[in-house]
Design a protein that fits this description.
Helix content: 25-40%
Radius of gyration: 17 Å
Largest sheet: 10 strands, mixed
Distance between the termini: 26 Å
Shape: globular
Oligomer: single chain
Number of domains: 1
Strand content: 25-35%
Length: 241
């Protein structure tokens, strides 16, 4: 029997896919991309509490290092932001997550998106663990990629593993990738203990749900407790590719 929240995410996936197809009539490529980013932004704004600010811009750390332009930044409402005309700068200590949005995730677009996540992972997170209410899972800013369409699982996995072939620290990897209604990746522990590994999951219609849970699990550092979202979603097994 399908769980209530599982049905919610499947319905939302269908809505996102419909909005994606409808936006195809927009001829200007830049405007089309902005519309598709906005679809995801609106979904997050409706789903997450008001304490989270959803925006777009560059992320700045205390060493004055800046990331590449980030499509979606999830930010703590109590932290200041700084505008330079059309560009907004977010302080790395207030960033709870970052998401790159792609219409079609081919190999070239995947590399571009991973380059953005790398520029964000290279920043200092600038969080004093002694002042945090909850535990900090990583000193790196959580970073994700969402795509409406994408290449085959085989080609995706090949491009992904090639990109990170010389990277020894898994905390520098993107935290999750979702191709809507197809597949996802997420960081997973082996036997619930370090070292971590990357799980490639054929999640199909549950892709948005798995992506959301992974995103959610990275964003609780300022919460008094960690809501057990998985209890509401139920247990699911997916084919590994």
């Amino acid at each position: 029997m399908m769980r209530t929240l599982q049905r919610f995410f499947i319905d939302t996936s269908n809505i996102l896919e419909t909005e994606f197809n409808r936006s195809s009539s927009v001829k200007h490529t830049g405007l089309k991309g902005q519309d598709r980013e906005m679809f995801i932004q609106k979904f997050l704004e409706k789903t997450f509490p008001k304490k989270f600010v959803i925006g777009t811009g560059e992320i700045l750390d205390s060493n004055d290092n800046r990331s590449k332009q980030a499509d979606i930044v999830v930010y703590d409402e109590f932290m200041p932001t700084f505008d330079y005309g059309t560009t907004k700068h977010f302080l790395s200590g207030g960033v709870l997550a970052h998401i790159e949005v792609k219409s079609y995730l081919d190999s070239n677009e995947l590399v571009k998106a991973l380059d953005v996540t790398k520029s964000i992972k290279d920043l200092n997170r600038d969080i004093d663990s002694g002042l945090s209410v909850g535990p900090i899972m990583s000193t790196k800013i959580p970073s994700f990629i969402f795509a409406y369409k994408g290449i085959t699982k085989k080609n995706f996995k090949k491009t992904f593993t090639t990109y990170y072939k010389n990277e020894k620290n898994i905390d520098n990897y993107v935290d999750g990738v979702c191709v809507l209604n197809k597949y996802t990746t997420r960081n997973a522990f082996q036997n619930n203990k370090p070292p971590k590994k990357i799980a490639f999951l054929e999640t199909k219609e549950d892709s948005l749900m798995v992506f959301f849970e992974s995103l959610f699990s990275q964003m609780y550092k300022n919460w008094l407790g960690f809501p057990q979202l998985l209890k509401y979603l139920g247990n699911h097994t997916y084919k590994i590719f």
